[in-house]
Amino acid sequence: MPDVVIGGLRCEAGNKLSGYIPAVLRVDGTPLGLPVMIVAGKSEGPVLLADGGIHGDEQEGALAIAAFARELDPKHLRGAFVGVPVMNVGGCEAMSRGNPRDTHSFDMNRIYPGRPEGFLTERIAHLHDTLIAAAADMEISIHSGGNICYLAETVFVGGGDAKGMELARAMGPEWPIILDTPRPSGSPMAAMLQRGKTGITVELGGSAATMPATLLEIVEILKRALRNVCRHYRMIDGDASYAPQIWRGRQMVIQAGKSGLLAINPHMPLKQPIRKDEVLLGITDLFGETVEELRAPCNGTLFGVRTYPSVTAGDWALFCADATLQPAETL
After folding, report:
1. Rg for the chain (alpha carbons), in Å?
2. Which residue ranges form the domains of the chain, and what is each CATH number?
3. How confident is the model at residue 331 (pLDDT cuts 50, 70, 90)?
4. CA 239/CA 250 separation, integer angstroms
5. To the nearest 10°, the Cα dihedral for 108, 70, 133, 8?
6. Residue 281: which residues within 8 A CB-CB, separation 6 or more?
7. What pLDDT, in 10s, does the model give residues 147-156?
8. How high is the pLDDT of residue 329?
């Protein structure tokens, strides 16, 4: 395996290296850029890239990527693992979906791969795309529900991408929901597909699940998935495992039609079958009177729920999969 060179970072085969790639300078002259972790194997194999924190309030990926890279033994790795724990450092500092300093291209997951002479977030996205993603054979972009929602283990694949479907299944048995994004755009997954490579977007967690024990469990689930992917592609030794059944379909988001408070439902059927028109959640006014019932728009399963009780008409409230549960071998 040759040395892995990304920007100004060079990691020799059989070694690890961490460092920052600067994108722009702040007013005080300090760099704002991208943290990069490289684990370079001693023998040939694919280059797997994992990204976290493209949304600054979604930091589960940052913790999992850093821990996984630190645990990987480069002497027993074929190919290379490249981790970017946080893509949007400005957003992460502010605990915000995007960098508040950039009101023009606030959401990095809508403007990727950016522009070299664009707004602040576009410049950082362009740096990631040209110096880091371009060196990878496949990419996993790790998301969560952030400050608004909790999302269960779900994988999004570009429509018709057979290699993406393989990568999604390689996430392992804890990831049974695989949904199509028919025409992906503005995201790392879309940019990888345009290169003729593959990428997926995965969702797990949210601010409702950041108490220490729960957050640690989410980090461990993500680490197991990254390890399973490495086993599937023979980057490390060991047998990969897979979900025996897959919910396969597309996402449907339920938006609130009325403003008010979400009724408390401790039995939300996450990752369980739902039936079209089934009442999933209610919205009440400030006196506790029901003003709207949120019903399942499809048969399938529920994978996400808004975790702020306060809701305004038009807000995201529930995330459903219009999907069928299929034996994995039929896919």
Report:
1. 20
2. 4-243 (3.40.630.10), 249-330 (2.40.50.100)
3. low
4. 30
5. 100
6. 262, 263, 265, 268, 293, 294, 305, 317, 318
7. 999 999 999 9
8. 75
